Structures are given as C-alpha cells and as structure tokens.
UniProtKB/TrEMBL annotation:
Residues 3-39 form a coiled coil. InterPro entries: Ski3/TTC37, TPR-like_helical_dom_sf, TPR_rpt. TPR repeats lie at residues 40-73, 562-595, 596-629. GO terms for cellular component: Ski complex. It comes from the Eukaryota. It comes from Piaya cayana (Common squirrel cuckoo). This is TTC37 protein. The gene is Ttc37. The lineage of its organism: Eukaryota, Metazoa, Chordata, Craniata, Vertebrata.
Amino acid sequence: MSNKEVKAALKSARDAIRNKEYKEALKHCKAVLKQEKNNYNAWVFIGLAAAELEQPDQAKGAYKKAVDLEPNQLLAWQGLANLYEKSDQADVKADLADVYQKLLELYESGDKQKWCDVCNKLVELYQQEKKYLEAAETCQKLIQKKQQGAAEKSDLHQLWKKMIILLKDNTQDQDNKTEQLLLVAFENALGSADTIPSEDHQNLYKDFIQCLSKFPYEMTRLEKACNDMMALYPTVSYPLEVLSLHFIQSGTLSEEALRCFSKLSDMDASSGPGIIGFGIKCLQEKKYKEAVNSLTEGLQKTDQCPAAWYYLAESQLKIHKHRESVQSCDQGLEALITPMGPSLQWKNHILQLKAEALIKIGDADAAEEAIKALEQIADASSDPMILAIRGQAYLNKGLVDQASQISQELLLSYPDLAESHALEGFIHYSQKYYEQAERSFLNAIERKAETAEYHQYLGLTYWFMSDETKKDKGKALSQFLKAAKLDSCLGSVFCYLGNYYRDIAGDKSRARGCYKKAFELDETDEESGTAAVDLSVELGDMDYALSILNEVTEKARMGTAKWAWLQRGLYYLRTGQPSKAVADLQAALRADPKDPNCWESLGEAYLSRGSYATALKSFRKASELNPALVHSVYKAAAVEQVLGKYKNAITTYQQILETTEEYVPALKGLGECYLMLARSALENYFDRK
C-alpha cells in the first residue's frame, strides 16, 4: 500500500467514524497498520471506534500505543480523557489524573480556555478522590492562569472560596504546606470580595479568624486579622472574643490584653472571654474571691479554655479552697485537646498546680494522687520546684526517708532555694525536732520572706517547742501575726491566733474574733467553729453562736457537721426546747452513730419531752458504747423507776454502787425504789413484805 493509499484509507476511516460506521472504520485502520504499524492516526481512530463499540480495553490499548508513538500530540490524550471519563472503574481515576496533567502541559502555550476547562476537571477529580491538597494546589494554578488574563474579580473570589472549602475541614492531619495554602486562600478571598463591608464578607472574616485560632504558631497573623476585622466591623464582638481568648491562652497579660478584656466587657457584658479576662485581672490584683467568682462565671460560658481553668484553680488555691482547686485542674486537663506546643506547657502548669493543691489537702490518698500528677509532667526530674513538691508528697504519705533524700539533694544542688530549706523544715517539724525545724524555717524565710506558710510553721514550731517559746510574744505570736498579715485568707493561722489569745493571753473577746475569722474563711474547720460558739456562749452572745450553728446546719448534707448539730441540740436542751433538741441530736448521731455522749444527750432530750421508753433506749445505748458513763447507767435506772419497774431499777442502782459506793443519786434512787416496793406491799396487804 502506497502513501497515497494510506492517506485514502485514513480518510475513509475518518468518514466512517463521522457516519458512525465504527466497524468499517476499524477495517480501514487495520489495513493501514498492516502497511504502517506505527501510524499515529490509525491508532487514534481505532481507539475512538473501539470506544464507541463499547470495547474499552481495545480503545485504551490503541490510545496508549498512539501516546507512546507521539507523546506530545493532543488527539490520543484527548481520546484517553474521554474514555476514562466515561468509565466508572475506581482504578481508572489515577490514570485520568495523569492524562489531565499531560493535557495541561500540552495546552499550556496554546488554547487558554481548554487549559482552564481541563484544570477545572482535575480539581473536581482530586476532590472526589479526597486529595484535598492536590485539588487546592491545582485550583491555585487555575487562579494564577486566570489572573494573567482579564479574569473577573468575582470569578477569582469564587475560586479562592472553593480553595477554602477544599482545605478548611481537612487540615487536621496535613502538614504546614496545607495550612499556609488555606491561609493564603482566605486572605485572597477577603481581598477579592465585591462588597466590603457585607454580611458574607463578615462571615468569611469569622471563618478566617476561627481557622487561625486553631494554628498555635500563627498568633501574629491572628492578632492582625482580629484588629483588621475590628476596624471594618467595630460593633461585632467576635474578633475581640477570639483575641481575648488568644491573650488568655498565651499567658500574656500585657496592657494590650487588659484593654482588650475591658473593651469586650463594655461591648458585651455577658461575653465569656470578657468575664474570664476580668477574673484574671482580679487575680493579678490579689482580689482572689472576685477572681474566683468571675472565672467561674466566665467558664460557664466558655469552658474549653485550659488557661482559664488554670487561673481559676490558682485563685482557689490562694483562698485555700484546695479540693475545688483540684477539681478545676481536672477540668483544665479535660479541656486540653492536643497536649502539644503551648498546650503541653499548660498541661505541665496545671499538673504542677494540681499537685500543690493535693499537698495542701494533707492526707495520704491526696499525696499519692499528687505523685501521679507529677509523674505526668515532662522533664519533671530537672525542676527543683517539682522535686520539692514531690518531697512534701512523700512526707504526707509517711515516707520520711524518701522525703529526706529529696531534701538532701535539693540542699546540695539548690542551697539558695527557699523551698529546699522549707522541705527540710517540714521534715524536722513532723519528727518533732523543733530546734532543727526552727533553723530550716528561718533559712527559708531569709530567702523568701513573703511566704505566709513559712511564718505559720515557724510559729507552730515555737508553739510546740516549749512553754517558754509558746508564751513569748516575740516567738509564736509574732510569727502567726506575720503569716496572717501576708495571707489574710489563711484560716488555720487565725485558729492558732485564737488558741494563743484564749489559752495564753486569756483574752476571750480577741480569741473569739480570731476563731470567727478562721471559721468564715473555712466553714469545714470544726475546731474554729466550736471554739467560736463556746466563747460566744461564755461571753453571753448567744445570738452569734446560734447564727453560726444555723448557717452550718442549713448547708450541711445528711451525715455531716456533727459538731454543729450537737452544739445546737445541747443549746435547745438547756433552753427547754426538747423536741428541737431531739431532732438536732438525731442529726448529730447520723454523722457519728457511735458517740456515747451524743446518745446520752439524746436520752436527756427524750426524758425532757416525756418520751420515757425512747429515753431508756438512748441511755442504754450510751452505756453499751461506754460502760464508764455512770450518768447514763444512773439515768437508765431512773427512767425504769419512773416507769414503775422498781426491781430492774434496784438491780441497776446496785450495779452502780458496786463500782461507785458513794454515788449519792444512785443511793437516793435505791432508797426510793425500796420505799415504793414497801408501799406497794402494804397497799396489797402483804404486811411482812
């Protein structure tokens, strides 16, 4: 077949395809290939005809042969693209992407519109395959191509928004490249919007700021975006809220941050970040109770803020609400989404603060939990402050040897650290080595004089060292007063001051004031509450005593606050209100059912009310729990006497007199019972009874 005949056959094949005579076209092409097996057009026509005859494998093979022969010719690539587009096979998608890439290369210097069409198809394909980064990069190339021409601003805006949609929800597992591409898309979309300001533009700005807030290393960009949005939309609080949260999370409490909190509060008084910001300001100003109130309120509205939970826990620790502080730390740890970067730093801060709060609780279980918290802190072994806390935890668990080992290491490596000497002081104090404890606490105070706890423990050291140091105003009292001045929320030191004024100075009025202050600071402090009530009764101020007891009992859960129920019950008993006394003493027994004194008092209340049977049971219960309570045994006999059970009463009186021969009430009761039995015998004519 000559060249002329080959051309004629190819023309016939083209005509056959045009007339949809695909089998005829195949014949002509095969004839050509017998003569010229590498004829590009013949392979292209075979691919086209086979595709129309629904023979995809043959079509694919023909197109690929053509591509191999002439890789820079369009026809075969276009044919492959059409073939793959019609296929619903999953494995074809990757091949189609390669075909589109080649077509883009071939159209690059030619037909711009076709290049854009293919580029759009490639974006859609990547999107279907969930290859969002590739889709976004291709979309960016499309934008750049359009920017070279006279593209409409609105078209470019839509393409930038498409890039945002592709990347916005898919940056979690991607690298920095994806993040940067998304941010570039946002910035360009914001700049290419038709109407500024507008609701759409405002929403786009919100999305941009929300996106930036997820990237911990884009804080400078975030600040700029928030400030730019505030300039455009001065009445919208959203950028101020995000900026406030940024300042809170970054731990940056600069003048700029405080202005931001203030501005947000002025704009929206109910805004969570604004209220949290005010709480942090209060914490800075040492207004701890106000800080707790504001931070608690703010976190009810914005609870996923680890830094705010940390500041709340710190404020609670400052007012010695140790258990509440631990709870806030736990909430802060839950709010940490990913413990990396700044979040890891907050995790370490929160865990350390939690351990400090647990140490203040003081029991062995809390100490064990503190040790577990410290074990989770990164690089904890190299931090002397954490080592000091660990030492205190061991001490609270009763592991004095381990605590001493840490103390020695700290004193050797960090001799100028106050905490090193304080730990040594706590260990000596726990072992009642008061002279050594005195030296240690004085060393700690020399290095950190503003720590109230060191003065308090030095005062306690003097209190227990000897009667001389206890009574010396320049020793125990002086240190307690310094501690109270440094930390006016430290309830325990006011309790010790109350002990001093009551037991040493004999000043009941001043002692009561100290106990009152201690109890106001810590309503769980039974010693201070009881002492305040007792002194109020002694000073004739029963109204104040009752006000304390009423306040405690109103808030008390069932089975708690025994001391308050007991004290009020005894008051009602003394003032002739037996029914109220019974109710309160029963509540006290729910808290401690094995208190013989409480059972005895309940018996007295029942007796005053005339409930003899229940009074008898109460007195018997008291004597069972403590056989040495002679009064309860006597009262049980007296009730039996009232009930006419003279023989039982006589037996009980005799038991009392066997151990206490001169117990006059029992002698009197025994005589009365014999007399009543004799009278009964006479009335029944049993003369010789």
